[in-house]
Design brief:
This protein has about 180 residues and is an alpha/beta fold. The chain has two domains: about 110 residues, no CATH class; about 70 residues, Histidine-containing Protein, Chain: A (2-Layer Sandwich). Helix content is about 45%, strand content about 25%. Strands 1-2-3-4 form a four-stranded mixed beta sheet, with helices on both faces. β2, α3 and β3 form a beta-alpha-beta unit.
């Protein structure tokens, strides 16, 4: 284990000991930190390309890994973390530029990373309904949401995402 991995593990342990266990959001941030540190020290996963988000004990993994084994190992690590109720594994397998997931087929790695970050935020913030397409950093939002506020929230999340050049919001509000 190198110094960087040791620091990550120590940081996660400090977060764990200082967390206020009575608050769920505190628990979620501790779970996220522990899962990230476990991924960082695991030889089979590349934690640099894996985003971890936790909400009410449900861990969502997004990003890109190079093999199905990496994807499965990341899920195992998350599942075997104390406090994790469930794991949503949205990792995409990419081998030599080819994506394993149909949704990511033919997408550039940078666009796939943008897509993963937006979807992770949508899950974390309860944004349901938008469909997201990314091409050369340009995001197109379609689908239906239940309120104008949700439509605006979906666009704001996309605009605030690193790497996004512009957002075309075509989301419709269901009345």
């Amino acid at each position: 284990m190198n110094k960087q991995h040791l620091m990550i593990v120590l940081g996660a342990l400090l977060a764990l000991t200082s967390a206020n266990c009575e608050r769920r959001s505190g628990d979620d941030s501790v779970i996220t930190a522990i899962v990230k540190s476990k991924l960082a020290v695991d030889n089979e996963t590349s934690s640099a390309n894996i985003n971890v988000d936790t909400k009410n004990g449900v861990v969502t993994l997004t990003g890109v890994v190079t093999t199905r084994t990496n994807k499965e190992q990341a899920e195992r690590i998350a599942k075997n973390t104390e406090g994790v109720m469930r794991v949503i594994n949205n990792l995409t397998v990419e081998t030599n530029g080819n994506h394993d997931a149909a949704e990511g087929a033919g997408m550039a790695a940078s666009d796939l990373a943008i897509l993963s970050r937006i979807k992770t935020r949508y899950v974390a913030e309860g944004v349901i309904g938008p469909k997201v397409e990314v091409k050369d950093g340009m995001v197109t939002l379609t689908g239906n949401v239940e309120s104008a506020q949700m439509r605006i929230r979906a666009e704001n999340i996309a605009r605030a995402t690193s790497g996004v050049k512009d957002v075309n919001n075509m989301i419709e509000v269901s009345q």
